[in-house]
Amino acid sequence: MRNLFESYAESPKFIRKTLWKIWHNFLVSRDKEFEIKCMNYGYADTDITLKPLELEEEDEPERYCLRLYHQNVVGNDFEGKDLLEVGCGRGGGASYISRYFHPKSYIGLDLSKKAVKFCNDNYEVPGLTFIRGKAEDLPFEDNSFDDVINVESSRGYSDMDSFLSEVHRVLKPNGHLLFSDMRTKEGNVILKERFKNAKLKIITKKNILPNVLKALQLDNERRKNLIIKKTPKFVHKSANEFSGLIGTERYRLFEDGIMNYYHYTLQKMD
Q1: How many CB atoms lie within 10 A of CB 115?
Q2: Of the candidates 168, 244, 242, which has an alpha carbon nearest to the alpha carbon of residue 212?
Q3: Among residues 210, 213, 194, 212, which one has the least CA distance to residue 202?
Q4: Which of 215, 175, 169 is nearest to 76 (CA)?
Q5: How many Cβ atoms sit within 10 Å of the Cβ of residue 10?
Q6: What sections of the chain are H helices per DSSP?
Q7: Which domain covers residue 235, as residue numbers?
Q8: Residue 1 is assigned to a structural domain of this protein
Q9: Taking the CB of residue 92, how many other CB atoms lie within 10 A of it?
Q10: What residues have CB less than 8 Å from 106, skipping those under 6 apart?
Q11: 116 within 8 A of 60, measured Cβ to Cβ
Q12: Cα(first)–Cα(last) distance of the chain, in Å?
């Protein structure tokens, strides 16, 4: 039998959603030291002439995961704005954007009850709150947010069209969806059509696969050591696959270009 997480990348959505929830809940019980704040594949600059991202000492261990959030939002002025993150996970990205970009308010929403409790118990940042909710049925009034952030979360949604429709509804006029996630090339064609149908205009788009792949390489040892430290031996293989360690199927899918990683900035259109 194949390892539980080995075929995650190409599994049906309901399986991906279930496995993601299981993994989140498992980490809540195992990470008592609060060492894992992000669970994305990361981003590393491929241009060595660029100045490295300046981080506070406490954020340095998760540099590449936070760098993925940074590339997703850089260039936006969030001062005095209301932000929503759908699929906030363990809250590391929400905390980073709140502390470094200073929005008026930031709501992190996640389906997992344990993940939301974890975030509310561990983060004390002005204007930052976490609530439980479903991506396809956002519990907010129309025109509530200046920007919606969505990082490496959408592939597990049961209804992507409903999610995008909800994003359009809760965004203020001319608001933005700042989106980064993995897709096959064929899946990306479908994704762009869904954006169009949801009246979300593409402002910028980029395949950031080279940056994600480099981040996985540079962050491989940290991830491997955390898996050894935080998980029992019998789940190491599953955890390796889920984390995209070098040599796993997920890493191969990225390395071979079968799975790509896209960033979009989209604007609400009436």
Answers
A1: 25
A2: 244
A3: 194
A4: 175
A5: 13
A6: 13-30, 63-73, 92-101, 113-122, 160-170, 185-197, 209-218, 220-230, 236-243, 249-255
A7: 8-268
A8: no
A9: 23
A10: 82, 83, 84, 85, 94, 97, 98, 125, 127, 128, 129
A11: no
A12: 50
CATH code for position 51: 3.40.50.150
The tens digit of pLDDT for each residue in 106-151 reads: 999 999 898 899 999 999 999 999 999 999 999 999 999 999 999 9
Q: Does any domain span residue 214?
A: yes
Length of the chain: 270
Does residue 132 fall inside a structural domain?
yes
CA distance 55 to 80: 22
Token pair of 153 as six digits: 């979360």
Residue at 70: amino acid letter: H
Q: Mean pLDDT lowest for which of 31-45, 48-62, 119-133?
A: 31-45
Whether 3 maps to a domain, the answer reads no
d(CA 89, CA 132): 11
Burial class (CB in 10 A: 0-12, 13-18, 19+), 9: buried
pTM for the model stands at 0.90
Six-digit token string for 93: 């990205």
Q: Which residue has the tokens 């025109």?
A: 143
Q: Which long-range contacts (CB under 8 A, 24 or more apart) does 120-124 make?
A: 122/34, 122/91, 123/91, 123/94, 123/95
Q: What does the DSSP 8-state code read for residue 201?
A: E
- Count of domains for the chain: 1
